[in-house]
Write a structure and sequence with these properties.
By secondary structure, the chain is of the alpha+beta class. It is built from 7 helices and 22 strands. The model has no long low-confidence stretch (mean pLDDT about 90).
Length: about 375
């Protein structure tokens, strides 16, 4: 199991009328995999700084002691995403502080079926830190309706009717006429709210990653799925962001760039082809920083026998490195990708760290694969969404 932080949460409603606070207690050393337990849920009238109610889970609701994300609307409804190493779920508390809904993602044959009971493991995303099914999802209260909606990265809609505390299997036609534009409005709103936040590489606090980065990443991803054209200017901003989500040994993963690039392509836009990976190249014992945009990004440049460093300096980094090194192109003609394989005995395609090895790698094969690699494909969508 991997350590999971459980920070205190303090979330305002859209107008600032209410604020939900979920605070735990430092649990000493009796639980080495998390830093807090014994959480207490409270709703405040934020304008008067007045406590409205307090709720604490009891032994019949153990998962409620693992809060990870929260929402509150301007009527006082509270929704909380729950998460631990073996389970996940959703909790709803009413404006009066009553427990209205609590359901897990999967039951494992015990109790009532979960709301993701029939979803494949690829959607649940089991990891050593628990299920990450919620990655790149959007979630909001539908204005004017007593509904809370979550759209997952694979397109599953979870719609909770708040007063009845039920998950709607089939929202009505009228409700869908409100939900679909509501999703687009959430995308526009989050991209506007987080604008200008992504052109500094200074260290960020954990809360920034949760509230700013994750929301912008989800909005950028769903903008391409739902074809939200108004999002294009913000996607252009994210396409050149230097903020990286993972790094190691001179390698940086600029995830926001990749998601923005994919969404632009899905809306028929031509991206600027900023590199969505970054590294410092070692050549003749000197460190060379590769440009953000390759000087000669053309399918005609690839040659069998080309050394890795030479290729990187000419055409830059590939879009993906899963079944090989894949470079995407919108033309000439129909979209396609160039897949590079390297002269190596390794079972997996070489990662960027291999550019530092003593014996250089050379291009062993070049394959042109027709079709748009950014097209929505349920069997491969997790590569883009997560």
């Amino acid at each position: 199991m991997t350590f999971i932080p459980f920070p205190d949460l303090a979330v305002p409603s859209a107008s600032g009328r209410f604020r939900v606070e979920i605070r735990g207690q430092g649990n000493g050393h009796h639980d080495i995999f998390r830093d807090q337990s014994g959480f207490r849920y409270q709703l405040f009238d934020a304008r008067e700084e007045r406590l409205l109610w307090t709720w604490k889970p009891d032994d019949s609701q153990p998962l409620a002691d693992y809060p990870h994300e929260a929402w509150v609307d301007d009527r006082g409804w509270v929704v909380v995403r729950l998460h631990n190493w073996m389970q996940g779920g959703l909790l709803v508390l009413s404006p009066a502080g009553d427990w209205q809904f609590l359901q897990v993602i999967q039951s494992f044959g015990q109790g009532e079926p979960g709301f993701l009971e029939e979803e494949p493991d690829a959607h649940i995303g089991w990891t050593s830190a628990g299920p990450d099914w919620y990655d790149s999802s959007l979630a909001f209260f539908l204005p004017g309706e007593s509904l809370w909606i979550m759209r997952t990265w694979w397109g599953r809609r979870l719609v909770i009717d708040l007063p009845s505390g039920t998950l709607l299997e089939e929202p009505s036609v009228g409700q869908m006429e409100e939900i679909v534009p509501g999703e687009a409005a959430w995308i526009r709103s989050e991209l506007e709210r987080t604008a200008g936040q992504f052109h500094s590489t200074e260290d960020k606090e954990d809360r920034w990653w949760q509230d700013i980065y994750n929301k912008a990443n989800a909005a950028a991803y769903h903008a391409g799925i739902l074809k939200v054209k108004e999002a294009i200017p913000r996607l252009r901003e994210l396409e050149s962001s230097p903020v990286y989500s993972r790094y190691g040994s001179g390698y940086f993963d600029l995830r926001l760039r990749f998601v923005a690039k994919v969404s632009l392509l899905r809306m028929g836009e031509q991206p600027c082809w900023y590199a969505n990976h970054k590294l410092n190249l070692i050549r003749e014992q000197k460190e060379i920083e590769l440009p953000d945009i390759a000087p000669n990004r053309s399918p005609d440049v690839f040659q069998k026998g080309m050394e890795m460093a030479e290729l990187l300096l000419l055409v830059g980094m590939p879009e993906e490195m899963i079944d090989g090194w894949d470079y995407w192109f919108t033309g000439p003609g129909e979209p396609f990708k160039i897949r590079i394989q390297w002269e190596t005995d390794a079972k997996q395609p070489p990662r960027f760290t291999d550019y530092r090895q003593q014996n250089p790698l050379f291009v062993a094969s070049i394959e042109r694969i027709p079709g748009a690699p950014w097209a929505i494909d349920p069997t491969h969508e997790h590569r883009i969404a997560r």
